[in-house]
Amino acid sequence: METITNGSFTGERALFHAHDLRIRDSVFSDGESPLKHSGNIEVYDTAFNWRYPVWYSHDAKLHGCTVAVGARAGMWYTDRIVMRDSTVAAPKCFRRCNDVLLENVSFPDGPETLWDCHNVKLRHVTANGDYFGMNCSDMDIDDLQLTGHYHFDGVRNVTIRNSRLITKDTFWNSENVLVENSYISGEYIGWNSKDLTFVDCTIESLQGLCYIENLVIRRCRFVNTTLAFEYSTVDADITGGIDSVINPSGGIIRADSIGELILEEDRVDVSRTKIILNGKSRE
Q1: How would you write the pLDDT of the chain (283 residues) with one tens digit per residue?
Q2: Count: domains in the chain
Q3: Which residue range is the domain that position 225 belongs to?
Q4: Residue 65 maps to which CATH number?
Q5: I need a surface site. Which of 51, 86, 140, 158 has the fewest CB within 10 A?
Q6: Are residues 147 and 250 in the same domain?
Q7: Per-residue DSSP letters for 19-73?
């Protein structure tokens, strides 16, 4: 494999169609698409300063890199890409990629990041920005620290563990999502979703977890959560109490207490929902 060290690249398509190449301690300055259509490349401790650096590529490894604000839409249409110990300051990075591994990566201002990507693994990722992870599938996430709004809209087959999500309208239109040992805070969590499961989580929400088919909750704590479960089918095992519940479509809710229970017979068939408080069925 050829190695380039201390390179300074300018101009459009500076290393277009590069293959079997290792790049170290270099800078890609002005000039679009410097590594477009590349394959089997390794990039270490290098800065990308201009738009579209890695498009239509495959087998790319980036370690200790910086993707500057000007390098927006950095990695698109790329298969088998690994990024470690890096900072991505640009928006709209990673779109329509397959087989993505991000480890120790930060997105300090990353709106519209990770769209339409498949087979994604995230480890120790920090991200701030709206619409993170839209329409992705087959995601395996551990230790994600995420802030912003409208995250994981339309995702399929996602597992999230040991994470902290501060977000509005997260998990909308999703299917087959499992969240474990995590903290989730935001309005309107999970609307219009199917097969959404929370295990050992702390959840804070206004009118969250509504319009869900097959919502499962195991040993979760609810803090400042009101008007939950409207028109959802739910199997909930709540640790402690919940402030208020409104018109679930059916299922079972177990809790120590429910501050306000709203069951309106003209809206739902109340006989389809069983409420158990402190181990005793509510008649």
Answers
A1: 899 999 999 999 999 999 999 999 999 999 999 999 999 999 999 999 999 999 999 999 999 999 999 999 999 999 999 999 999 999 999 999 999 999 999 999 999 999 999 999 999 999 999 999 999 999 999 999 999 999 999 999 999 999 999 998 999 999 999 999 999 999 999 999 999 999 999 999 999 999 999 999 999 999 999 999 999 999 999 999 999 999 999 999 999 999 999 999 999 999 999 999 987 776 5
A2: 2
A3: 130-277
A4: 2.160.20.80
A5: 140
A6: yes
A7: EEEEEES-EE-S-S-TTTT-EEEEEES-EE-SS--EES-EEEEEES-EE-TTS-S
